[in-house]
């Protein structure tokens, strides 16, 4: 009741073909496909530009004015030792 069935879509397609003709309708669908392809390519280009900008701002992409640091961090070779265990509880004197 609320949606289009297969018959509705077929009748609509036949009416479109009768109004516009097969060749013109085919050309319009080709133009729509080219538009969608161009839109997707533009979105991908925009995503690539945003990714490059993010990597450049966050230092993940090496820039020519800043060399890549390859020496390890001084604390990376000497990790912090775990804290010592707590002392044993004091033994209570049975004499009171």
UniProtKB/TrEMBL annotation:
It is found in: Cell membrane. Pfam families: TatA_B_E (PF02416). Signal peptide: none annotated. Gene3D superfamilies: 1.20.5.3310. Keywords: Cell inner membrane, Cell membrane, Membrane, Protein transport, Translocation, Transmembrane, Transmembrane helix, Transport. Residues 80-96 have a biased composition (Pro residues). The chain crosses the membrane at residues 6-25. HAMAP family: TatA_E. PANTHER family: SEC-INDEPENDENT PROTEIN TRANSLOCASE PROTEIN TATA. This is Sec-independent protein translocase protein TatA. The lineage of its organism: Bacteria, Pseudomonadati, Pseudomonadota, Alphaproteobacteria, Sphingomonadales.
């Amino acid at each position: 009741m609320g949606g289009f069935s297969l018959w509705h879509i077929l009748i609509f397609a036949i009416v479109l073909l009768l109004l516009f003709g097969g060749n013109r309708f085919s050309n319009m669908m080709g133009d729509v496909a080219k538009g969608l392809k161009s839109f997707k390519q533009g979105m991908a280009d925009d995503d690539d530009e945003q990714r490059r900008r993010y990597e450049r701002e966050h230092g993940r992409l090496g820039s020519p004015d800043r060399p890549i640091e390859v020496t390890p961090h001084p604390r990376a070779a000497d990790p912090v030792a775990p804290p010592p265990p707590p002392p044993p509880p004091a033994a209570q004197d049975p004499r009171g």
